[in-house]
Design a protein that fits this description.
- This protein is mainly beta.
- It has 2 domains: 99 residues, Immunoglobulin-like (Sandwich), CATH 2.60.40.10; 251 residues, Jelly Rolls.
- 5% of the residues lie in helices and 51% in strands.
- The strands form 4 sheets. Strands 10, 12, 13, 15, 20, 21, 22 and 25 form an 8-stranded antiparallel beta sheet that branches. Strands 11, 14, 16, 17, 18, 19, 23 and 24 form an 8-stranded antiparallel beta sheet that branches. Strands 2, 4, 5, 7, 8 and 9 form a 6-stranded mixed beta sheet that branches.
- Strand 17 and strand 18 form a beta hairpin.
- It is globular.
- The protein starts with a helix and ends with a strand.
- The N terminus is likely disordered.
């Protein structure tokens, strides 16, 4: 009888474990950066999923009719017990404990740097090779009311150049190299790469906007570039090895760049080593908007838009250093064609995070 009872208890524990959510990131006991990316999966198709800070009376994010919850959230430094919960008629919990700390490297408000003054600075180059040509372009700081959230933003614009051909684009970038700034460790192979910034677009939409982040570490170029492609209405990501843009599952309706106001944009990815020992980059999620109060759900009148890139798109890295050293950069690119002849985007409070 005692043996039967112990067997029953073990069986019930196994069933309970099988019915729990799976934490994809972070893992129990891990140290993470701030803001923090959360990713968990539930069995089947539950009624809802919730992300909780244990001990709080309200969840910090709720999604409905999906089995995959992703979310970026700002938590003060400290230790937390997090619960990824789902309900399929019965409520199921899965608790992990994490420590939130400062990121190894945080570059703040890099969009506010004076254009072409000092180091680093924004530069520009053609974004594609012949027969693609460069449009008329400009970028400036903007302090006007409605076009900034912290005193000034930076805008990037492009207009199809007459006689320049049917496809034109321009690539803006700002590079920081450790070799040019001794003692500053800005090259890292981090646990997660995260870029977040405020953005809005003009009502005149180009063929595509691209936001990118590059990390140089140990002689490798880890490129994480996301493109809002208005020609296909999907988000795409860039493969530097194949020199090609790859379409994701995320539509611009699911994660839209606003044209009437600034929204917070989070782009999340991570480096990893594949089974053949090759260094690669995986694209994790796109999030448009940011919760300012809890609870926050996908049924709010103006909801936040976190969307997992699923299945994850993985791309290779190339052999390259930052002028002989390590470093990182962020970039903006505008693509135009004969049907979408101009575009403009504002970025503000641009942060680069290297997660532990």
């Amino acid at each position: 009888m005692k043996f039967f009872s112990l067997t029953l208890i073990a069986f019930l524990c196994l069933i309970a474990n099988l019915s729990a959510t799976v934490w994809n990131y972070p893992q129990d006991g891990s140290t993470v950066g701030n803001p923090t990316y959360f990713d968990c999966t539930a069995p089947d198709n539950p009624n809802y999923m919730k992300l909780w800070v244990h001990g709080s009376s309200t969840s910090i994010w709720t999604v409905h009719n999906t089995n995959h919850l992703v979310f970026v959230y700002l938590l003060p430094n400290g230790t937390y017990t997090m619960d990824c919960q789902y309900n399929d008629g019965t409520t199921h919990d899965n608790f992990i404990t994490i420590t939130v700390t400062n990121n190894p490297y945080d570059a703040a408000n890099v969009d506010d740097d004076p254009y072409n003054q000092g180091m680093p600075y924004w530069e520009q180059t053609p974004g594609c090779s012949s027969p693609c040509t460069t449009p008329d372009f400009d970028t400036q700081l903007d302090t006007s009311s409605g076009n900034q959230t912290d005193g000034q933003s930076r805008w990037f614009s492009a207009t199809l150049h007459s006689g320049g051909g049917g496809f034109q684009d321009v690539f803006f970038y700002e590079k920081r190299c450790a070799s040019l700034d001794p003692g500053v460790g800005i090259g890292e192979r981090a646990g997660r790469y995260m870029v977040n910034f405020n953005a809005k677009a003009s009502s005149s939409l180009p063929r595509a906007f691209e936001w990118g982040f590059t990390q140089w570490f140990n002689g490798r170029n880890y490129r994480m570039a996301f493109q809002a492609d208005y020609a296909s209405n999907f988000w795409r990501v860039y493969d530097p090895v194949g020199n090609a843009w790859i379409q994701t599952n995320v539509t611009l309706t699911q994660a839209p760049i606003p044209t009437s106001e600034f929204k917070r944009v989070y782009l999340v990815g991570h480096p990893y080593t594949d089974s053949g020992g090759n260094e690669r980059v995986s694209f994790d999620a796109i999030q448009i908007g940011e919760c300012t109060s809890a609870p926050c759900t996908d049924t709010d009148s103006d909801p936040i838009r976190p969307v997992a890139i699923s299945p994850n798109v993985n791309v290779g890295t190339v052999s390259e250093s930052c002028f002989g050293g390590e470093g990182n950069s962020q970039s903006v690119q505008l693509d135009l064609d004969s049907t979408r002849t101009s575009g403009k985007v504002w970025t503000d409070k641009y942060y680069v995070h290297l997660q532990p």
